[in-house]
Design a protein that fits this description.
It is a single chain. By secondary structure, the protein is of the alpha/beta class. The chain has one domain: TIM Barrel (Alpha-Beta Barrel), CATH 3.20.20. It is 38% helix and 17% strand. An eight-stranded parallel barrel has the order 1-4-5-6-7-8-9-10, surrounded by four helices. Strands 2-3 form a two-stranded antiparallel ribbon. Helix 4 runs parallel beside helix 11. It is globular.
Length: 260
């Protein structure tokens, strides 16, 4: 089994337990479920902001513990105040140290677009994302077949959530549908966890027109960011570069000054 297979198997197990504790009806009765969402895609195209989706991540399967001291509310709000186009929050618990409750804590900032980054495989998780305050969800091409992605994307769209569709190779672009808003090219191979920014440069021209384009993972160099902008990317998802610092917001602010 690949690392992705292991994580998805665990997600299914945890999801079965969560469903027994909280029903869909319970989720639909939450404070945030009927709120108007913020557009991540529009913010990525807003030239007054940085084009960066700054990520809050406590740990990862490849790096282990990254930062377990920082406050999700303070860091994400700080990112947005310093010019982030949106924030990404890892909600997987076992492998990334997050939870859906982190979305609620970050939602204190009413204007900030929040991406729920998780291994979403079930409609329940889409509804849960809306209930806990997310504005967008991540769907990973490598984890689904076309029909599954279509159904999950359509549900997200009906709830006012945007969809970031993540690919790692050109063939996965065949799975894109009309309910996708953003296409992200992950420089990390989710089966081996190897990282190469060459992936983004190889795929960018193959991305269909009409979608916001972002590059994800392994983006620690301001020079690479500038090259990816020139190649046609509208935005960048960056996490470890900031979270490895004792002060992620300050690290973000410094990085932004280097890419202007």
């Amino acid at each position: 089994m690949t690392i992705l297979d292991v994580i998805i198997a665990n997600t299914k197990k945890e999801l079965a337990a969560i469903k027994k504790l909280t029903s869909v009806k319970d989720l639909e009765n939450t404070l945030f479920f009927n709120r108007n969402t913020n557009s991540l895609s529009k913010n990525l195209l807003d030239n007054s902001r940085t084009g960066i989706i700054a990520e809050f991540k406590r740990k990862s399967p490849s790096k282990g513990i990254i930062n377990i001291e920082s406050s999700v509310a303070e860091v994400t709000s700080g990112y947005f105040s310093e010019g982030a186009s949106g924030v990404s929050i890892l909600t997987d618990n076992k492998y990334f140290g997050g939870s859906a409750n982190d979305l609620q804590l970050a939602r204190e900032n009413k204007l900030m677009p929040i991406l729920r980054k998780d291994f979403i495989i079930d409609e329940y998780q889409v509804i849960e994302a809306k209930a806990y305050g997310a504005d967008a969800i991540l769907l990973i091409a490598a984890a689904h077949k076309y029909k599954e992605i279509l159904n999950l994307s359509q549900l997200a769209h009906s709830l006012g959530l945007e969809v970031l569709f993540e690919v790692h190779k050109p063939k996965e672009l065949d799975l894109v549908n009309q309910y996708v808003n953003i296409i992200g090219v992950n420089n990390r191979n989710l089966k081996t966890f190897d990282v190469s920014t060459d992936t983004s440069f190889e795929i960018v021209e193959k991305i269909p027109s009409g979608f916001v384009k972002i590059s994800e993972s392994g983006l620690s160099s301001p020079l690479v960011i500038k090259r990816l902008k020139e190649a046609g990317y509208n935005g960048f998802l960056i996490g470890e570069r900031f979270m490895c610092s004792p002060d992620p917001v300050k690290a973000f602010s410094v990085f932004v000054k280097e890419i202007i």
